[in-house]
Amino acid sequence: MSKILIKNIKGLVQVGEELPMVRKGKEMRELPILENAFLALEDGEVVGYGPMNEWEGISDWRDLEIVDADGCFVLPAFCDSHTHAVFAKTREEEFVDRIHGLTYEEIALKGGGILNSARKLTEMSEDDLFEQAQKRIEKMIACGTGAIEIKSGYGLSVDAELKMLRVIKRLKEKNKIVIKATFLGAHAFPVEYKQNHKGYIDLIINEMLPQIKNEGLADYIDVFCERNYFSVQEMEQILIAGKNHGLIPKVHVNQFSTMGGVSKAIELGALSVDHLEELADEDIEALQNSSCMPVFLPGCSHFIGIPFGDARRLIDSGLPVALASDYNPGSTPNYNLFAVWSLACIKMKMTPEEALNALTINAAYAIGLSETHGTICLGSKSPIILTKEIPSLAYLPYSFGEDNVQRVFL
Ligand code: NIG
Ligand code: FE
Description:
Elements: E1 3-13, E2 33-42, E3 45-51, E4 64-68, E5 72-76, E6 78-80, H1 92-99, H2 104-109, H3 114-122, H4 126-142, E7 145-151, H5 158-174, E8 178-186, H6 197-215, E9 220-225, H7 232-244, E10 248-253, H8 261-267, E11 272-275, H9 281-288, E12 293-296, H10 298-304, H11 311-316, E13 322-323, H12 337-348, H13 352-359, H14 361-366, E14 384-389, H15 395-398, E15 405-409
Parallel strand pairs: 1-4, 1-5, 6-7, 7-8, 8-9, 9-10, 10-11, 11-12, 12-13
Antiparallel strand pairs: 1-2, 2-3, 5-14, 14-15
Helix pairs in contact: 4-5, 5-6, 6-7, 8-9, 12-13
The chain binds N-(iminomethyl)-L-glutamic acid and fe (iii) ion (FE).
Residues 113-114, 117, 224, 252, 255, 300, 326, 328-331 line the site of N-(iminomethyl)-L-glutamic acid.
């Protein structure tokens, strides 16, 4: 058995029993922190915590690793509820095209973007895809990510979508952290179906979904609901079929335009609506009457130069907000959630506490892991981050670009 005692912790963050499953509105400013604390872990499970003067006798000394966290903070690892971490190749050429003035949407319309990634993925073997993605997962964990959702969506054919999902299944089996799989066959229309949307949607519904169900390859279903991609009505058709195959909706919506996708996704029981760089009044109303988590992806806004989502407006309307990386080779080649934390504070005017709630408790909700992740409580098996010596918790988003992680306990 592995036993670890972390002592002299300057601040043990997001700690306590019976913490809420979601923090919304003004509650997002709340963040329980125990100062001068200890934390006891056995085989990765929290078995005790408290103020330093109460730690004696919490665990016997045999085989006990003692970690002195003097000057350091301990926090639950982040949950990344939205990534595209399985992909074949990076896309620096599009990055340079944008520097020369093209927009993300213009690059996609001339055959770049998602279709560019799909061409590259078709050529790569399942083993190579797996090896590359595994390296990415290890880097994500090293910077404090303790649970990850990964989407398909760079296959866009029956074989290639199944190949991606099988890679995600292997990643689930290989890694100690929890990984959730999302089927995103409806990420873009393949060139050969540009004029035949019905043909591709039939392929998704009649060929892909039954096989995905048979092999148990996905937890969630996603659709990119956007102009030039999938209409609200097309999204509805695909989400209903996904639900019939046991998958819960979680969608890309409102990245460039508002089309009514938010309320439709909520009506269909979406666990989260992600992107939301554009927001209409009716979207906020729909969210207010739901248990759906709005997820913002500031790394994407930053990288492709589109507006940052108006998290302030949602929080000030009493709503919860979650944050995720959107890690992918086109719109967001960043997986570091400390960077997302900084962007949320600097560009979206979220306080450090609000943004940390958005990356832990609310993010765990958006990935279906409220029971086990996002907080430090007795019995919790969530990975845990030990920071380097830092002056305060706000230093973490403040010192943007600095690596403040000392160790991640799995
Ligand atoms: O969430 N917007 C849709 N999908 C991804 C980007 C995909 C890509 O450019 O490869 C996103 O930003
Ligand atoms: Fe995405």
